[in-house]
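Data deposition worksheet. Section B asks for the primary sequence of the deposited chain exactly as it was used as input, without tags or linkers unless they were present during the calculation. Section C holds the resulting structure in token form. Section D is free text for depositor observations; keep each observation to a single sentence. Incomplete worksheets are returned to the depositor.
Section A, Depositor: J.P.
Section B:
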Amino acid sequence: MEHGLYGEVERDITASRRLYTATVPLPPHQTRASDMIYSSTTGRRQALLPDHSTSLRVELLIPALDRMLSELQRRFSDQALSIIGSLASLLCPSSSKFFIFEDIRPLLSTYGEVCNINESLLTAEMTVALNLVTKQLGDKLPQSDLQTVLKLLVPSVAFPNLLKCVQIALTLPVTSASCERSFSAMNLIKTYLRNRTEDVRLSDLATLFVHKERARALDRDKIIDTFATRMDRRIQFS
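Section C:
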């Protein structure tokens, strides 16, 4: 363990320990319940490790790796991966599984009953939709985007279950970063001076704050001109 990231961490900790060596007197051990018998404790004994390298590996490296592995297993479980794999059948015209009913069963097993999707009708809708887009686009289908395909599915009332599945696939969040960013923005926007801000205005301000890139790309002069024409606040003096 002398090379790599772990070796650098070990050297930094060892140097800090030598630089800031201090003796801290420990208080005498006190027992608050002397008339009781302890069958277990909430702590654990310090293991006798041969050297600092082994101690850092046991106390720092292994718990960190264990936590990362548990988080990866929780976020990317078999069910989540199967749902992600089924999205290609709804969102990727270039996929060989595009509009194939059997490949979206993991998605239906999770959201089908909640969103009231009829599987028998969905099977027929996907078959008709695949034949329609294949006839319209031909060899251009793999190079087409989803928006082009959806424009061909008219009238939309003929494919209610299919379009509902596409909406679910498009709105599935990959991470919770956007939600956490929204909560952070709320604390910055709704300050003490803006405590009486109504929900509509607060939602609009939060949208501008979260999506900064799109907000900066807006033409401010055009917005001001539009606001001036719609809200004529000038008083005409005769």
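Section D:
Residues 22-32 have pLDDT under 50 and may be disordered.
The longest helix spans residues 52-75.
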